[in-house]
């Protein structure tokens, strides 16, 4: 691949890596699994990047690839990642420090969200990222109305989990 394409990918990934960290946080429960999933998502993004046409924002496309990768690899009973060797250049991106010592409220919320199914987790994540229902629907491949209905049901579910 061209060096220009690689530099473009590295910049986009660097600018949007918090999206990937947040998705990893939703689908993993320890630092090692988080790092493994982050690496696998990065590899999948890199493999798919030449096909990225720019029809949507990079962040929307990255959400879709990252969520699909996470959902595929981290089903309820599957906690290991089959990694892929990558023999590319070693200058890729510098990881931003990610604070694993979250405040107690955020930990409780993640604990509650972790009990949701895969699609519900993705929907909550995008909702908390202030994505509008049109973008949520586009990313998840559902209708906008369906996204709204699902989100209302999830809110009720989370209230029950957080306030039994």
Q: Please tally the β strands and state the result.
A: 0
* Rg calculated over all Cα atoms: 16 Å
CATH homologous superfamily designation of the largest domain: RNA polymerase sigma factor, region 2, helix turn helix motif
Helix percent reads 55-70%
In whole angstroms, how far apart are the ends? 54 Å
By CATH reckoning, the class of the largest domain would read: Mainly Alpha
Shape: globular
Order of helices and strands: HHHHHHH
Q: Averaged pLDDT, please? A: 80
Q: From the 3D structure, determine the CATH topology of the largest domain.
A: Rna Polymerase Sigma Factor, Chain: A
Query: What is the number of helices?
Result: 7
In what range is the share of β-strand residues? under 5%
CATH architecture of the largest domain: Orthogonal Bundle
SSE-based structural type = mainly alpha
Family: Belongs to the sigma-70 factor family. ECF subfamily.
Domain RNA polymerase sigma factor 70 region 4 type: 111-158
GO molecular function: DNA binding; sigma factor activity
Pfam family, one: Sigma70_r2
């Amino acid at each position: 691949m061209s060096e220009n394409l690689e530099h473009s990918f590295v910049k986009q990934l660097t600018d949007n890596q918090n999206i990937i960290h947040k998705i990893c946080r939703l689908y993993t429960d320890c630092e090692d699994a988080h790092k493994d999933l982050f690496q696998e998502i990065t590899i999948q993004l890199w493999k798919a990047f030449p096909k990225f046409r720019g029809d949507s924002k990079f962040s929307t496309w990255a959400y879709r690839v990252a969520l699909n990768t996470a959902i595929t690899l981290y089903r309820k009973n599957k906690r290991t990642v089959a990694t892929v060797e990558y023999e590319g250049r070693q200058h890729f991106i510098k990881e931003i420090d990610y604070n694993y010592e979250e405040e107690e409220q955020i930990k409780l919320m993640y604990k509650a969200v972790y009990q949701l199914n895969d699609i519900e987790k993705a929907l909550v994540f995008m909702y908390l990222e202030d994505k509008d229902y049109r973008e949520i629907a586009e990313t998840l491949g559902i209708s906008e109305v369906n996204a709204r209905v699902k989100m209302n049901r999830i809110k009720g579910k989370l209230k029950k989990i957080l306030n039994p």
